[in-house]
Prior knowledge:
Layout: H1 7-15, E1 25-35, H2 44-47, E2 55-63, E3 68-74, E4 80-84, E5 117-118, E6 122-124, E7 127-129, E8 167-169, E9 177-179, E10 199-202, E11 205-213, E12 221-229, E13 233-236, E14 239-242, E15 248-252, E16 261-262, E17 267-269, E18 278-283, H3 285-290, E19 295-302, E20 308-315, E21 318-323, E22 328-332, E23 339-347, E24 352-354, E25 358-361, E26 364-367
Amino acid sequence: MKNSIRWSFVFFVLFSxxxxxxxxxxxxxxEKYYISTAAxxxxxxxxxxxxxGSVTYRVFADLTxxxxxxxxxxxxxxxLKIATTTRFFNCAKNDGKSSTxxxxxxxxxxxxxxxxxxxxxxxxxxxxxxxxxTDDSLPTFVESNELHILRNDEKDLGIPLARRDGxxxxxxxxxxxxxxxxxxxxxxxxAFRDSVDGIISTLNGAWASFGGSAGPHPQNQVLLGxxxxxxxFSFELNLLIAIPGGxxxxxxxxxxxxxxxxxxxxxxxxxxxxxxPQILLAxxxxxKKKGVGAIELLATTSDEDGKVVAVDFYVNDRLIYTDSSFPxxxxxxxxxxxxxxxxxxxxxxxAKCRSKNIFLSDNIxxxx
Length: 368
């Protein structure tokens, strides 16, 4: 049953009052964990389709020593928002809304290592997340991958996963606890991947760590989440940090009041200087009535600070056709039963935006 108690009241009872003097947050670090290649798509038969070029981001809170992460939250005037202009990747093998839903024994299979979820420090059950640059533990999960994938070593992703995977074995670590924040996280569960937009938002919810979380190294860096997408990734976060000796501090993305601190790094976009294109996918209405022959689809696109150069068309979340000239159309000739059709617009700077899905079952169309 959904928790009907306001999370802020719960935190007031658990964590006492806020403090003004100390500052427990030093930085927000966005690590480019991995970039998927065509070679990785061999894992899609087991794990679900992973778009080529998808980037896996890890978001860390870099805390002052001895301070602890208590919660990532949204409330009135302080939206909590995590978004992509396409979809978040969710592996079918062992997906979950938080990192501790992931069993480490499955990480050698398929593309589970790239799954999307939130965290209060853990990278999976019994493993703490650390930056690849501070990882001193071997072997990596990629070395034992049964399909021999996830081995991209291009310079843009920094340290390859085959050399350092940011996983440090550490049992009895805190798991995420959720307050008024369950439905929104369906974005991170495989069963809902085709029926949700890539936006998670709340003005009255949180994920939290009872007792607080600290990083395993003196730098005290705590993972807040891992997110894989081929779209523009962005977030606005607000953090509650425990102060040594009692009390807490609130760090907000904007609109600080009273004892709150505005922290600019709590706002992030992977493409800050380029606005994403827009796309609307439609089906020929006459064919919708006839229900026979090829199905003609038309993508209507726009881009306010550039131009759309191509549209990718997907059937059941698999890329099957790219149209690089206007008007952007696609003729679908396949089986018309239980099909999900969508499209992505790509602008001249590489930003993508995914359309809403069109569901086709026995020649009946329905938008999500």
